[in-house]
TrEMBL record:
Domain Transposase IS701-like DDE: 33-257
Pfam family, one: DDE_5
Organism: Streptomyces anatolicus
Coiled coil regions, renumbered to chain: none
Highest taxon above the source species: Bacteria
Name of protein: Transposase
Length: 397
């Protein structure tokens, strides 16, 4: 039996993440929000960003305003800046992407889900969704985010709000939420491809590997083939019923991914390094091809299907990767980054107001996500902004 070592270092650099030197918040804010056309917009961007960083607990607009100023008009100004002021989410996130790229991120683009529970049915994009992490069906907004890994930290560089057909096919709801005409329903796999295309357009990283969990996506094959057409390597969690063809002679009938791996003996051992934790792991793995290729054509690309063998027998995620000729140590180190994406989203929910957008509009949702992403990035890279003393918090600078 072969034993190798895997850890996040092979996917994201040889050194652990560390904060860069302290940076004044106004310098960071002035760079990230420099695309905003008007001086007052940039002022309120800085104020909202500071409020997210210094306000404890829930980040409602009123609490943000109270934390940074005693002026009662500030709350309304912040609310209008996020929900009504015209500024471009894409331009801000492009600037944030460049900021993170300057910290030499690793070669993995991780896509994670942000489940944002909401009351009622007025918040843009809200729908019934089964949340696997809680095992419950929730009334929520669902956002997909792109994350770039820098050492052992991950930074959000783009977002996509998933819109169900109950929103895209209802003219009245579209008008009320100010959903642009070009925004139509896309299945989850298409949302993921859209994020990949947008990040590819704004970064110089042709060899980055896409990491995403699509284990509940029935049409995941469209994502896999879309990534292959883009010549983009990937590590994707797939549904257990995904039909595959075992590589090798005499293997012609499609089988489900789960049944194929269940017949494999765990014959490869890897030492997983997850932060400071190190533990041995054994994997079931097989080389496969996807079904559905044109008849008479040459066989499709070779992929590696694998899952970590649980000693208790509990089923684990099934992963498919285009890195078929890489070692299990290398691909499992990329897989391990998925937990870091979930942790980053959890931190944004707990500490940076990801759940706390009070508006209902499509532009407002994106504006809030840009501001939360900027606050999270600043805090992780440069430390917290100092709260103004009570006797000086009279006005917004």
């Amino acid at each position: 039996m072969r034993t190798t070592q895997a850890g996040t270092s092979s996917a994201s650099g040889d050194v652990a993440y560390a904060r860069t030197p302290a940076l004044p918040l106004d310098l960071f804010s002035g760079t990230i929000f420099k695309s905003l056309r008007r001086t007052d917009q940039r002022k309120w961007a800085h104020a909202y960003l500071k409020g997210l960083l210094v306000t404890p607990g829930k980040k409602s607009v009123r609490r943000l305003a109270t934390a940074i100023s005693r002026d009662p008009s500030v709350a309304q100004s912040l609310r209008q800046f996020v929900s009504l002021s015209p500024w471009d989410f894409d331009e801000v996130m492009e600037e944030l992407t460049h900021w993170v790229a300057g910290r030499r991120p690793g070669p993995v683009w991780s896509i994670g889900r942000a489940v944002l529970p909401k009351r009622g049915d007025r918040s843009v994009g809200v729908h019934r969704y089964f949340d696997r992490s809680s095992g419950r069906t929730l009334n929520c907004q669902l956002g997909l985010g792109s994350f770039w890994c820098v050492g052992d930290a991950q930074f959000p560089v783009d977002w996509c709000l998933h819109l169900s057909t109950t929103w895209t096919q209802d003219p009245a709801r579209r008008r009320e939420a100010r959903i642009p005409d070009g925004e139509q329903y896309r299945p989850m796999w298409a949302d993921a491809l859209r994020l990949v295309d947008r990040l590819a357009a704004r970064s110089d990283s042709p060899s980055s590997v896409v990491l995403v969990d699509m284990s509940d996506e029935p049409d995941v094959g469209y994502l896999l083939r879309g990534l292959a057409r883009r010549h983009r390597d990937f590590v994707v969690a797939v549904p257990p019923y995904l039909a595959v063809l075992a590589a090798g002679e005499g293997a012609s009938a499609p089988v489900s991914a789960k049944s194929l791996l269940s017949g494999q003996s765990p014959d490869s051992a890897v030492v997983l390094s997850l932060g400071k934790e190190r533990r041995p792991a054994r994997f079931q793995t097989s080389l496969v091809r996807l079904t559905g290729g044109p008849p008479g054509r040459a066989p499709g690309p070779l992929y590696r299907l694998y899952t970590e063998a649980d000693p208790t027998g509990a089923p684990g995620p099934l992963w498919l990767t285009s890195l078929a000729h890489h070692t299990l140590a290398e691909v499992s180190s990329i897989t391990a980054l998925h937990a870091g994406t979930a942790e980053a989203i959890g931190s944004m929910r707990r500490d940076f107001g990801l759940l706390d957008f009070e508006g209902r509009s499509f532009p407002g949702w994106y504006h809030h996500m840009a501001l939360v992403s900027a606050a999270y990035t600043y805090q992780r890279l440069h430390g917290s902004a100092a709260a103004p003393p009570p006797d000086t918090a009279q006005r917004v600078p």
